[in-house]
Amino acid sequence: MSPNTLAVATEQNPAAAASASTVNTAVNAPAPKKDGKEKALSVTEHLLSIAEVAAKYSVSVNEAKPQDSQGLTAAEAAKRLAENGPNMLTPPKKRHWILRFLDILMGLFNVMLLVSGIFCYILLGINYSANYQNTYLGAILIGVGFMNAFIEFYQQQKSAAILESFLNLIPTQCYVIRDGQTIQISAKELVLGDVVVIRSGDKIPADLLVIGSTELKVDNSSLTGEADPQERSKRNSHHNPLEATNLAFNGTLAVVGNGYGIVIRTGDNTVIGQIASLTSNEERRESPLSVEIDTFVKLIAGVAGVTAIIFFIIAMTVKSQGISNSLNFAIGTFVSFVPEGLPATVTMLLTFAAARMAKRQVLCKDLQGVETLGAITLLATDKTGTLTRNQMTLTFVWTGLKLYFAQNLAEGSHEAQIASPFAMNDSAAATSLSMSPPSIPLPSSLHSRDPSQLKLPNYETAQDQYPKVFEIPFNSSNKWAMTIHKKKHATGSLMLYIKGAPERVLKLCSTIHDGQKAVPLTAQHNAQFDEMYTLFASKGHRVLAFACLALPESEFPENFEFSKDPHGVREAVGKCRAAGVRVMMVTGDHPLTAEAIGRKINMMLTDTKPMIAKKRGIPESQVPEEDVNAIVIHGDSIDHLTDAEWENIFDKEEIIFARTSPKHKLDIVKRAQGRGHIVGVTGDGVNDSPALKKADLGIAMNISGSDVSKEAAAMILLDDNFASTVSGIEEGRLIFQNLKKSVQYTITHTMPEVWANLLYIILSLPLPLSSILILVVDLGFELFIALSYAFDVSENPAGLMKLPPRKPVTPESIERLHRRRALDRAETGGDVEAVHEEAKDQSSKFSKMIRSLKKPFTKRYWIEAFEKTEDEVLIDGDVLSYAYIEAGTIQTLGCLTCYFFAMWYHRSITPYEAVNFGANWGSDGNDYTFNGRTVTVSDQNDALAYGQSAYYLALMFQQCFNHFICKARLSNPWGSFMFQNKWSFAGVFGGGIFSLLIVYIPGINVAFLTNWRLTPYTWLVAMAWGLFLYLYAIVRVLIKRRFAPIKYTDDIPGLQMFPTRWSTGGK
């Protein structure tokens, strides 16, 4: 349906959009002092008279005429500024970039690489000629450690830089009265007692006591959750400071009117500063992905270290190897166990995913947050729509195909020559701008050239005269706002009005008003529109277009009930619930209002206990708890809930918390985490920031969000659209699947590398794969192929969002969590919190590391490690079994086959010879004779070069087959999805070319001791083993699907899943 009347207007100096929130706050939160201690502050000035406040802050004010106040003297203001410091929020403590880089570099994985590299150079110093390859090996190991750290550090810095561009913790300029003069100063220079001039559109620069006002209204939504602007004057009858009508708070917006106020709080002592201090006291838990990778790295480090030590001792004692050879072997074994490219692979995959999420309007400050969003089990939100407000000053109007100006223009200017003065008694302007059909006359009573006083007739009573029956607020995705009002016209009783970005509104229109009537929109009209739009835009004005549509009575009778899905919230919530994510509302609204909204947006579908009791005609106390699946909790009762009552609440699927404060929201998050939930929290106000910081994933709003909330959050919705959260969950789940594929692929090559070293000691086999070739595997073709998983499409897009959360909260998981906490209390003497607090302390990192190292040597660690759970972790038993036992063994056999084939094909050396004479293979004076044939040391070294080249290429060819096998996690390893990622083929091609260059380019192969004469027949042998691996994987998957089918979430009856223009991308 297209609106059929179009008009365009422009404005200058729009006020910043106000934040919106629905949670109340308190003002008695602790505020940080300079020395780091905390003190309780309370606001009482609103209970005092203006004279008493003026006396308290020693400032001269004129209560009758605030504009004639003397204010502070410049000298006194400078003195107070020196005493109390600047009026600004203390920025969050930031660790120096060098220390942050060192933190990453000192991660266990990178430390293993650095230590291995250092040992290489120690060996080089012991025996240079025998260990000259360690020159390259040590440099590569140390370089990889720094490279891994740099990649992660760079991504962190990049995200931080983007966030900085969004933050502006305090307005830069404000007007104050000092020495009787109104002057403009930096808001940082405000001091207690200053008299501040408040103008429409200003952001309040400090907490103020209003001493005079003219129709002043402020937007308090970022602090109190009140959606409507609140009147402010010097009169007050409220005791609660946040309800006081004579206080204006730092960070809020003056949306209408003007006034004057005395500064009573600055910087961290303001209400916004006190709430921000709550945020600094909260710590976010490590992400599930971080914990799982850390656990895997510790496991690999332990296995690699123990294996290297054991075989170092065997080499020294049983095999009588010298210390140089034994240590070389130990380093090789250690390096073969460690997938050197894994950290870079994981970081890059998350980076690519973060870039895709940014295109979907989701900014990740922390790369781990990309996957955390896909892992959340509970999403607490108070956000069901975005409302932006702007103050506009009218400058030009183009209506009825004519241009009008609404401000004084210089005589002789181009605009004055082509435009007419705007007057509401101009019949053409009045008719077209009235946004009414031509048959409805508009009273022409107002003629004003003062843009500050220009109003449409009867504006104050328009809402009563023409009641609004439906509204879609403005948002950044559609860039228009629409309302429907009861207003009689020739064909019906309802009128639709729309305003927004001109190009968006124009696309919706099929006709345009020519000053007398609506006529079909033509190319000539479009050209005129573009001309005017260019003129307005070139002058730096913001341009708005207006249109209307008379709704016919036959289709839209007066009592027609419209429905809407703001920003696709209803479908978005439905998708979350269908994906097994519990969506919970935490709001400052009245419980009845909150419940009504929840029932419109799929958040609450079943009956609460009062509703069930009413239907059954029984008291609420007689309704069994197991019959209740929905509950609404009033904030007043939260502080008095027992542990059992909290458990009962979270046992429900549909939960709404109403009339909550920031402390309540924080408590709710902690309680949910205490049950094992991975909690996501959305919010935009300052009052949301403590919960955003504590949640596993805090999600702030970019447009309406406060600076404090953006700083506290781990993720920012750039378009303030709740539906973007669902896109993020889907992307997070996809990246987890792709990460799992990539890790499974990457660690599969570990066993061929490990067995190459173990067989060197166990069977005295000439070393099939050198340490430097192992690094070329891990950092060469493996990186090419592993990174391509980042671009894999979903095997089953519908099934991806039907999978349960990978760490579901079930009765079994809750019981297991309680049992483990009981053990924690027993081990710590009941003081679990002390351990958690110690973990936050930088000075206790060493003791934390010691405890972490002790854990693998305890019985409890291994019991819990092998305890059956419902969780899906990144590296689980299935992945380990496939990579280290099944595929790892097959690939090892394939590599050994190629190794022996190459030695036999080129030098006629049999496996028997390699095993029996391998102990001193290639050593000086170790020529041997077998079956009448003498094999010199030179022949041995040449044969080994062929064998190692074949082993290396065989691993590469088999991994190419394995790459496609690992794509199938939710489906069988065949189908079109396996070939939709063009980067897979680019990775295989690039990795293959890289490997062939290592072997077949003379000069390059000297450093890697490969042989460029290796026969391509070896390739065929490797491909045959790769095909065998593929067939084995097919059988394995079929058996697995038969006995362990994939579990999906159950359908939720009653979900209203109607596609909207937001959920379909506007299609």
TrEMBL record:
GO MF term set: ATP binding; ATP hydrolysis activity; P-type sodium:potassium-exchanging transporter activity
Organism superkingdom: Eukaryota
Keyword hit for Metal-binding: no
This protein's record includes keyword Electron transport: no
Pfam families (alphabetical): Cation_ATPase (PF13246), Cation_ATPase_C (PF00689), Cation_ATPase_N (PF00690), E1-E2_ATPase (PF00122)
Membrane topology: Multi-pass membrane protein
PROSITE patterns in alphabetical order: ATPASE_E1_E2 (PS00154)
Gene Ontology CC: plasma membrane
Region (Disordered): 1-38, 220-241
The protein's name in its UniProt record: Cation-transporting P-type ATPase N-terminal domain-containing protein
Organism: Rhizoclosmatium globosum
Lineage: Eukaryota, Fungi, Fungi incertae sedis, Chytridiomycota, Chytridiomycota incertae sedis
